[in-house]
């Protein structure tokens, strides 16, 4: 036996007390919080009888105290634990070696230990108690209140008894770890959204269900041995007998059932759609295990998606637009009846019958090199919707709108032949009218100049008249619906500038009767010309009959961009007499309706109030914004 004291403890040895792995192993024994166990008490009594020493302890040491798992011989009332300042056992753990102290009062390390002063410890002999993997948890020791030279026989007796104590500690730790793992596994199992059941092999008797299965199948009070309170049906509506349940088939016949769909109707609860699997599991003893996944919400979502698909397909079939969907390789996934009719008329019934699943370019080779092919390539390259006009084989003009999504392309082809022809005719007529009106303005300007030269009125009168006529000409330039290089028309114009240009013959910003309120919005050709035409018509009426026809009137124009829509309000007020809505719409009103609804695809509404007139127009920003 080593009878010498160990050298002074280094910092590394002291750190062993706080080693996380050691403390974790110590906690896993459960001995720090448990009441003294009889088996350990017997060990300490046996040690004192065999050696004749008055005191024996089984001590567990953590990072700030020692706990007496068992003790014999301490003066009553015996403490259940002490701080490390009153511990010799800590040195056994720190050194992971036996500790032999004949007389602590003469030891420079131990003579100031609180156990010497408060517990009367003089002689000490202790051996470490370790885990299977060698972590020192505490010490089994003998204590005498008198100085004592420990013998080899006493050390061997202490070591032999300690071996039994150590074996019991290891067993308790294994049991605690197993219980902890079982509880953890059970907690995980009960948290799973899948129902799990275990049945006895051969009989099919249920052994266990997790919490989800208990709630799913209506088991009460956790008794899984009773008859389950539900009925099961196949998707076709046939009721299953008990012997046909997947878990019973797996238990009795050792069948493997995979993803069997059942309708489960609880006697006291809701109906569910379940996806059930069951099979034998090799264990001791072997059992049958079944899992049940609630797919009620999934089935409902599938039915809803199918209904949405049916409604979308119905819409695709009743629309006048031709619709085709292409995959990432330009193969036709879908073509509605209008598209199939166009394919049939263009390349024949046989090509139409084979169109779905075939390349668009094989089905309609005449589209190779067309504007449609270029727009399709652009949509794939940029990932943004693309619009182009495509000339059909039948001479019709089709507006193709292509929408890319996840490699596929959805294309809508609308027949715009009449729309394009009307627009072309309107453009021709407007250009001719513009030319003649400009000539009329020039002639009026000349007449005013001549009148100024020969009349007796001041020259300021002629200048004022010339400026008003010039303002009309500038407004007319904004109304021009076609921008061409020879006219040097600006591609964009601010909405505020447009309003002032159109209203300049009748008023200006210094006029207290005029209020303009709205953000800066740049208009493209279509927006500026069409809105100018509408404002011109409204302004003409305001000058003749409304707010600009008298000094007390007020004209308020406000506009805003609301979710991709331009909303413009025209409000006239302050009219001294009650205004009455005309019984018939004049040419101006019809022209406004045609412009807003036909050209700009917007809405227009009016309201006559006692002291004025209100109008609101709403048009899509993507058609007018520059």
UniProtKB/TrEMBL annotation:
Catalysed reactions, as listed in the record: ATP + protein L-histidine = ADP + protein N-phospho-L-histidine
Keywords (A to Z) from UniProt: ATP-binding, Kinase, Nucleotide-binding, Phosphoprotein, Transferase
Residue span, Signal transduction histidine kinase HWE region domain: 432-520
SUPFAM superfamilies documented for this protein: ATPase domain of HSP90 chaperone/DNA topoisomerase II/histidine kinase (SSF55874), GAF domain-like (SSF55781), PYP-like sensor domain (PAS domain) (SSF55785)
The UniProt record lists the keyword Ubl conjugation: no
Entry annotated with the keyword Cell division: no
Signal peptide coordinates: none
Residue ranges constituting the GAF domain according to the UniProt record: 35-179
Enzyme Commission number, as recorded: 2.7.13.3
Every PAS domain range: 183-250, 310-377
Superkingdom assignment: Bacteria
NCBIfam families membership: sensory_box
The protein's name: histidine kinase
Lineage: Bacteria, Pseudomonadati, Pseudomonadota, Alphaproteobacteria, Rhodobacterales
